[in-house]
Amino acid sequence: MPSAVETIGKTPLIELSRLTRGLGGRLLAKLEYLNPGLSKKDRIARQIVEDAEADGSLRPGQTVVELTSGNTGTGLAIVCAVRGYPFVAVMSKGNSPERARMMRALGAEVVLVDQLPGSLAGQVSGGDLDLVEGAARKIACQRNAFRADQFHHPGNFRAHYLHTGPEMLEQAGGQIDAFCDFAGTGGTFAGCAQAFKEYNPAIQCFLVEPTAVNHRIQGGGYSRPDLPMLRPEHIDGRIRISDTEAMAAARSLARTEGIFAGYSSGANVAAALKLLPGRTVATIVNDSGLKYMSTDLWE
Fold first, then answer.
1. What is the mean pLDDT of the chain?
2. Catalytic position from the list 264, 265, 288, 291
3. Residue 288 catalytic?
């Protein structure tokens, strides 16, 4: 491969047969933590930059700015390092510090934004994210930068519609009955659901959401009803998962299947188990457990 960017994608799909023994059904997990930035967000970083280069909205050497919980920022740090763009990641102080350290190691400038009064570290709310959004807009304006804008840029949807979803269908031989994913921007769910529904409208697609407004599942569940990439006709249901369920599933995934993943991956697996009896369910292992070593997930 000419660079790390070209290694993004084409991750394996694994049957979690040990975790599902005796439950009736198959659980297929797409190991996105095997991307070079250790998360599925590498895909959108590459797609957004490539689409912006193609349409001229990103100029050679221009600074790239984006808000992030850490995963999109890591992906952008990798892509920007290879493609020659300075990158500024804007992140809430509520996210795990490993993420900021990783982005800095990859050459990014990291701007950390204070949480709202009363917010707890490890629990980033929609209000906290609004503060990060405001800071990202200000920095982008001051530096005449390209804003990656993952909540709205079509490259987010396209990365999963063109690649993640079709890869899963090919790897599973088309044998998928249901799909679920924890929503951050909603791009993974939207892109995969579109690909699945076009292939077979009978494939049911479920959004995974936290049970509480304040929760530990970093990278999503911001209580935002207006995620622009989601299409209501693709949502067959919503599955709510508690912090306890997500953490227990992530720990079981590590101890039973040897897959070391984070909170949202645990939420996905917990939700998929609820869909299991009699079905083949596909989900995403979103990122690596290495990004949460300072949290109570691995106490």
1. 95
2. 264
3. no
